[in-house]
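Problem 3 from the worked examples.
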Amino acid sequence: MCGIVGYVGRREATPVLIQGLKRLEYRGYDSFGIATVGSALEVYKKTGRISDGEAGAARLQGSTGIGHTRWATHGEPNDINAHPHMDCEGKIAVVHNGVIENYSELKRQLQERGHIFRSETDTEVIVHLIEEHYGGDLLAAVNATLPSLQGSYAILAIVEDTQQIVAARDASPLVLGIGDSEVFAASDMTPLLEYTERVIYLEDGDVADITPDRLDIYHGGRRVERPIELINWCVEDTRKGGFAHYMLKEIFEQPQSFYETIRAGVDDNVRQMIMDADEITLVACGTSYHTTLIFKYLAESLCNISVRTEMGSEFKYFVPPLRGLVIAVTQSGETADTIAALKMAKTRNCPTLAITNVQGSTVTRVADRTLLMRAGPEIGVAATKSYTAQLAALMQIINLRCDGAFNDVLSHAHLAIGDVLLYDVRDAVALCSMADHAFFVGRGAFYPVAMEGALKMKEISYVHAEGYAAGELKHGPFALLTPETPVVAICTPGPTYSVMASNIKEMKARKAPVVALGVDGDKELAEIVDIFIPIPNTHLLVQVLTASVVLQLLAYHTACALQRDVDKPRNLAKSVTVE
């Protein structure tokens, strides 16, 4: 959940670290800190956003350093709990992403041996263990420490008087950027884009000894070679490009990301895996889980194939009976729960497929095959273009199983997405921004679309919103309907249209104001609701996309009306790398 960055080379480290942390701030923004090695080991750390504290950090000097932006797991966000953490003598500094599950036991043992702890974090045990093992060789000290750690970690460690970083990972992401007499390290590739196109993805269990002119990677005590790969993203992809927020920029990038994902197609190995599957199980979390529910409705009705969807966070502890293809869907490729579920599926000898946005991410190395989304970097915490890119990938699977029946629909869907980007949703925004609670409802594939709309609304506007299958409101939630509780309903032509219209009338009878998304020209629906938002009258697959984009815009503009921090919603981080 946190972001870490490191630099060793010919430049001043501090500007590189600060810029890198800004690129990673979507992974956590409770607090931040950096440590550099110049004439001495110096540390600066502070609660709050990097932009608020970078002037204080700018005084640190040296060409070796590490940094951290935090999403709190152990200990409240404050200056003391911010990383980096130091040993008792102030000679060693460590940053860490992950969770040390046995930290309480380790901390007690270390305190009994005289170590003084300053923070409430689990990370601090790491630096004290390194301190105990350090006798002038940082690599040896880190190697001696790692067997004591239970849980997940990506670690960067530095020590005074050396131009060296030791990096280690297990179940948390860590990528190295290779420059000219300089090496970068980060939780993902976004901090590296300004400096290099060449990266190395460390594997679980890897330990890297990094200096400006040497990079040695060890696994199980033996030196190993990891391939250098080229990044196909560019730094311009990580900038706002004139938009007020990353989220709005990424909403407007959806026609392109959907089109690029469709255009990339499916390679022959993945195609064969899909066609051979008698049954499909999908595992995902959050927004990605909603895309799998949409896939289930569409695939079962259009392709007549049995589909199971599972939440990654539940899968590990309540493993369903497994047979057939297992697909993991994750934007970052680092979602801990989803990866754990995929590993479990492999132990059951199921063929596995990853749908992700990040080539080289952990899930691409765990799965048998990968179907890559083409969304580019997504910086806003609330998923938008990655959601539609996931749907592009999943809809390609449906199209394959239906013998290409939707080739034309999918190849032109991006045009319909573009058509709704400039829709005027001000009336609906005015209604939602005055509410404390809201319901989002739909039927069939539009039920999980409604769930995703509700998630977006509560993520960034903090309006409490719930997504329901429309027919379920009368089984309890009707008790909550009031004139101050708006309902956002998706009602498009199809087998559920008449019953959906009846559900809307039932809600209106309870005096709830209703915002309805329906197809352009539906006068009957427009007459029975308070606010009608028309979407293009197209194929079902495309209506799922356009309705989703309209709900993204509704959430975004509601959040702006309420003056929320759209790109950095409270308590949330984008890449959930801890359970």
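Problem 4, a separate protein:
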Amino acid sequence: MKHFTFRRLFILGIIVAAIICLIPTFFNTWPHKKINLGLDLQGGMHLVLEVQNEKAVEAEIERTVHELKKELRTEGIKHLGISRQKDNTIEAKLQGEESKKGFEKIISEQFANLIIPSPKTVSDGFSFILSLPDEEKDRIKKMATEQALETIRNRIDEFGVSEPDIRMQGDNRILLQLPGITDPKRAKDLIGKTAQLTFQIVNDDADVANALKGNPPVGSEVLFQNKRDPSTGAVTKIPFLIKQQVLLDGSLLIDARIEFDQFQQPQIGIEFNRKGARIFDRITGENVQKRLAIVLDKTVYSAPVIQDRIAGGKARITGRFTTEEAKDLAIALRAGSLPAPVKIIEERTVGPTLGADSVRMGLLSMVAGGALIILFMMVYYKGAGLIADLALVVNIVLIGGGLAAFGATLTLPGIAGIILTIGMAVDANVIIYERIREELRSGKTALAAVHAGFERATLTILDANVTTLIAAIVLFQFGTGPIRGFALTLGFGIVASLFTALMLSKSIFDLLLRNKKTSTLSI
């Protein structure tokens, strides 16, 4: 039993875990996580979209102009013209001191978010130049990009692309990598579609189970809510019987944002425009104690019970949300329509044949490089070289297992990262073996020479690898696409190299030399 120390059992456990994680990549078995091939290895489509979020600011200004005119008309205040200027400010012209005072009162009460400098006196009255604060403009632009991102993500999920890569790039760009796409035109058309947000009443008077069998009541349909278990990540579909009549749609929703109640629990605050507020007031007044389903693209996001009439156009959606869930729901509620035009500024399509060629050439280069390194170590370091070669094979298995465990996507630069770490792993063994040779020449026994060689080389190896690991982390954090793929495999490779060189190799030497008292060693 002395051979099975805690250290050796730990090493064996790591290797077995890596093999188990790697198996699903080749066979469809538990734990069902595998290494996914990137766009350059299996073909697909690469798009960079630019959200013209300045248009969202223009739309907000236009909406404010429209609301301002309605308020002035309601209060009987005459004006000489209210219009949006090219620099996204609002110019309002009024005549007479009474109109000026009434205008200023409405602005202070109803449009407090506008910056209102002192009016200018013109020949026919007064001229106001109103504008949004810079922070508000930045918020609208950011919200527009987030809305576009969520809408596009919903479209791509509906399209059924496996392992899509969708992320923000800068302030107003969205990067999409869609592996395995065979119909690029259809994908682009789908991305351009607009999400549909509706508010509908839940039909609690009929049997959902019966409706699931294909017998829904006239005027109702079965829709599902996707509930994700935060601990396991499993998604459960909860059926709802929803009345098909759309009482209110997302075109009248002007804002949805995450808020916190008095117990610091996240909730979603929503706000409608004036028309939406009137409709929402009527809907809630007529359906007290009924459930109002918030439906986005035929998926139920929430179905709260209406406790009382809600006036003013503002409401809160409460539930057992995490902060992340509440944020996602707020974005989804705002994603009823694209708030700004989205323009494709970069497009690349990689054919599946080219992707297969990339896989073949990448694997061929990795096998050829590995074989040459294995041969060199066997010839130059003899028996010790075999231990290094075994550690090298285990190193590759650990990298593959790590990538599979995290469901990472392997790209062509990622293969380059693996090849680089193979060389770095051998470099660590070379440093250790040269130290061991020096200790043997000084007359130490084989076991003492091995221990001294590992001890003296460890700090040097750690310094070299940790600095490279820091560079890999920086590349992963701030890089995009292929750069992140390279950084990921490089990072996994460095950790695996340290493990195999400093723990596995030393453990094998200890096991072989424990009872050997001579100063000879095949190295």
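Solution to problem 4. The mean pLDDT is 82. The two ends are 29 Å apart (CA to CA).
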